[in-house]
Write a structure and sequence with these properties.
about 65% helix, single chain, 4 helices, about 80 residues, mainly alpha
């Protein structure tokens, strides 16, 4: 699998945006303020299953965990910035 294909599966998997809105599921979840804990939970899920569910996708699972963790950090920074204004 190419590096670009792996990045696509981590950052924007097509199966998460096949709905009437065209939005990714995570955008809908965060837009409804259902996201608290979602990013952390998904990060933990991918960390815990890395190398176990599918050994061939261990790196992909770790990259997904990293992606959700970074998204949570960015969300918290945004909230802190908005609250400081």
């Amino acid at each position: 699998m190419s590096v670009d294909k792996i990045k696509e599966m981590v950052n924007h998997p097509s199966h998460y945006s096949q709905n009437m809105t065209g939005l990714e599921v995570i955008d809908i979840i965060e837009g409804q303020n259902w996201g608290e804990g979602f990013n952390r939970g998904n990060s933990l899920k991918y960390l815990m299953r890395a190398g176990h569910k599918d050994p061939d996708k261990e790196i992909e699972d770790l990259e997904k965990a990293e992606w959700y963790l970074k998204r949570e950090i960015d969300r918290l920074k945004r909230e802190a910035s908005e609250n400081a204004e």
